[in-house]
Amino acid sequence: MERSEAELIAAVLKGDAASFEPLVVKYSPRVFATARRYARRESEIEDIVQEVWLKAFDKLKTFRGEAPFEHWLMRMAVRTCYDFLRAHQRNRISSFSEISEPEEDWLERFVAEPGHAAEDADAAKLLIDRVLEKLSPPARLVIQLLEIEDRSVKEIAKITGWSVPLVKVRAFRARAEMRKILARMTQNKYL
Amino acid sequence: MNLTELEKKLIAAARLKVPDERVPYAFEKRIMAQLAARAGADYWVFWARGLWRAAASCVALAVLLGAVSVFLPAPPDTSKDLSQDFENTLLASADLPENPTP
After folding, report:
1. B50 vs chain A: nearest CA distance in angstroms?
2. Hey, which CATH number is domain A1-87, 1.10.1740.10, 3.40.50.300, 2.40.30.10, 3.40.50.720?
3. Residue of A nearest to B20 (CA)
4. Chain B partners of A53 at a C-beta cutoff of 8 Å?
5. Which chain B residues have a beta carbon less than 8 Å from that of A131?
6. A68: nearest Cα among A16, A12, A127, A4
7. How far apart are CA A22 and CA A8, in angstroms?
8. Judged by CB atoms within 8 Å, which residues 39-58 of B form the interface with A?
9. Burial level of A110, CB count in 10 A (0-12/13-18/19+)?
10. For every one of its 191 residues, what pLDDT tens digit does chain A have, with 9 covering 90 and above?
11. A147 at the B interface (CB within 8 A)?
């Protein structure tokens, strides 16, 4: 008979580490999806997910069961991704000279006819990845959660542990930072 | 160039990206192996922690007893009387009476 999540967690807390495996199997796809939003290399993604699970095991006694286990775990995953971004800040320092041909074509199309540049084009997706990589860690986290995942300010405050006013301030700064990066990118190419 | 429009387009592009949920083969086994390896390490940590606690309690006890011996009033010095008594006892047999009774 399949044991419930609460039973598995209780068993792990009693010392039965093997009961942790079904939780890893069940939630790893979501944790991997979250990690892939913040890291590009597969080895880095695996490191992040591994760290999330080890942290989850260590801190399981702090899980009080008031919210679903998944929410608790995803909060930990986002925070681990944020730590990863902060630890890899130096990788952001690069120019836009490495923009590929399709990305350049897409930008040219956008400059000529903004309405006709399709946002589902692979080039646009690559371009936004490039822009996100250049943002500072707090800005990237806020843009990801607020603009891309469409979460509320309150939700972001809960996930990150920041206060609501701090999230608002960081969102304002993040948008400004993003516009600056876009301006620099287009200035290099089209002015 | 309309930067606001470009920003909107790129954010829309990012929203359309569905994150990949693929998990590497036997990833859960790797996590469980990591946890098992850490449990082995934790055994030594457990002992080390115990020994450090024992050492700390010994030091605390030594300090406490030292403080007690320094700050408590010293008992009256009886060493002189004791030495006198000891000497008397030791030399009792040697102290021959000057006029022994018949």
Report:
1. 20
2. 1.10.1740.10
3. A33
4. 31
5. 10
6. A4
7. 8
8. 39
9. buried
10. 678 888 999 999 988 889 999 999 999 999 999 999 999 899 999 999 999 999 999 999 999 888 899 999 999 999 999 999 999 876 555 555 567 778 877 877 777 776 666 766 778 888 888 889 889 999 999 999 999 999 999 999 999 999 999 999 999 999 999 999 888 887 766 54
11. yes
How many Cα atoms occupy the beta-carbon half-sphere of A7 within 13 Å? 5
- Contact flag A54-B38 (C-beta cutoff 8 Å): yes
Q: At B48, which amino acid appears?
A: A
CB contact under 8 A, B3 and A24: no
- Yes or no: is domain A93-191 CATH 3.40.50.150? no
Q: Do B12 and A119 touch (CB under 8 A)?
A: yes
